[in-house]
Write a structure and sequence with these properties.
Elements lengths: L8 H11 L7 H16 L3 H4 L3 H19 L6 H14 L11
Length: about 100
């Protein structure tokens, strides 16, 4: 999988924290991922050019799903956190450091 070529250790640590199943997701985590992806797209991240069109559409689908969940999020249990975590990971596909889980 292509990966982002420009990330800091802080970003890698944040992604690892968000993708950790033991971490309880909060609103700020969702916002952080949405902002991260938006910035990478706005910057013309080269890793995005390596993705296939169907993969880019899949990223966009899950970006939208995560954004909609943010709009109507209520108290969530672990099952819902797992689903949200999956959406976030899919939205970041190709933009995360290789040592971060996917």
């Amino acid at each position: 999988m292509p990966e982002s070529r420009s990330y800091s250790p802080e970003i890698a640590a944040k992604i690892k924290q968000i993708t950790d199943p033991q971490h309880i997701l909060c609103r700020e985590d969702l916002l952080w991922v949405l902002y991260y992806v938006q910035q990478k797209v706005a910057q013309g991240e080269p890793a995005l050019l390596d993705l296939t069109k169907p993969r880019i559409l899949r990223n966009f689908q899950f970006f939208g799903e995560a954004a909609l969940l943010l709009l109507n999020r209520t108290a969530a249990g672990n099952a819902r956190d797992d689903r949200i975590r999956t959406y976030l990971q899919e939205a970041m596909h190709g933009l995360v450091p290789s040592d971060a889980p996917e």
